[in-house]
């Protein structure tokens, strides 16, 4: 019997990694289970944002050069903080724009089709923005997306099998672009073995790490991944629309940048404003226009928590929490028709648990009114993300207790069976 309040409290006391709710802006009377969509804001992120804002208010244009470090090179400051969390060199990471734009820019660099090798391999479960972006890039090259894009299909609509992906790695494929963690099921793909298999076939491979960044371990250099993109507002807690990050393996730094802009120019010459483009020969060469300083400042504060607590510890705690949640669901909720749409093997899942029920949409709405904030993904998934920083065992006990209450009392029947514009 794990479904027991005393037991949950005991686990909170004994766990080697304690939640640090006091370091976050928590929402009153709310168990926040939606950090996989939009993380809560750490006080350190807020403080850094205000610090940068204050610098600008007091010095105007001098903020670019007279702060310490100068904001003109802020992308490099943040890369130094970001890269080690991903097993990368700072020169291989830059903070820039949003994930969608970064996919375009890196694909434009790395997709160099030849007569025989011209396909791009994606999957049918990924968050669609990558697909949209790649299609638009292909059209500007005069190519037909339907002829270029190959799709690996999920066998069950929930998971992707690594062996099915590897089977599709033929000599026709130029680039592979896959999710690291699937946004719906929370499945974590084996980036290491997929990268190795792709390279054996001479294929370039990259990952959308938006759902794995800050929730799982990445070792980009050790695995020799070619490229990756991720956002910073989910598990990295940097606030809505905070700038995204990209990783480009240093072996590709000599290639033409995908979207040339003056902010990618060699720093000592940028203000010479020359017509001939000459970019920095590292990931920061993929910068485009003026940095979004106020959307970057929170990242500096938010990343400090990852350095203080260690990605390995955060990941291990996250696994213990998702396991506890899965155990409670199996023990308490399976008799109400709930199933788990997340891999049972800890090493095959990211930071959230997908709870499946045919009444998911109405149960989700009821949960929000009863103080638990999850999110819903059509047609039947409630995503629950126990973020190690600010969700504890007791929160998970209450989450399951409230779902049980919603079922026992049929509270969900009071809700409409339709979702809002922002699900
Ligand atoms: C959240 C998410 C994005 C978001 O892209 P934006 O350009 O930041 O809106 C992209 N891809 C995946 C897999 C995501 O989960």
Structure report:
With 423 residues, the protein is of the alpha/beta class. The protein has two domains: 5-32 and 310-414, Aspartate Aminotransferase, domain 1 (Alpha-Beta Complex); 47-308, Type I PLP-dependent aspartate aminotransferase-like (Major domain) (Aspartate Aminotransferase, domain 2, 3-Layer(aba) Sandwich). It contains 14 helices and 13 strands. It has helices at residues 5-14, 43-59, 63-66, 74-82, 99-110, 129-140, 145-148, 162-167, 191-200, 220-223, 293-309, 311-333, 360-369, 393-408, and strands spanning 31-32, 93-95, 119-123, 149-152, 173-179, 204-208, 227-230, 245-248, 339-340, 353-356, 372-373, 375-377, 381-384. The strands form three sheets. It has a seven-stranded mixed beta sheet with strand order 2-8-7-6-5-3-4, sandwiched between helices. Strands 9-10-13-12 form a four-stranded antiparallel beta sheet, covered by helices on one side. Strands 1-11 form a two-stranded parallel ribbon. Strand 6, helix 10 (220-223) and strand 7 form a beta-alpha-beta unit. Helix 1 runs antiparallel to helix 14, helix 2 (43-59) packs antiparallel against helix 11 (293-309) and helix 12 (311-333) runs parallel beside helix 14 (393-408). The radius of gyration is 22 Å and the shape is globular. The protein starts with a helix and ends in a 15-residue tail after the last helix. The mean pLDDT is 97. Residues 98-100, 127, 129, 179, 183, 208, 210-211, 231, 244 line the site of pyridoxal-5'-phosphate (PLP).
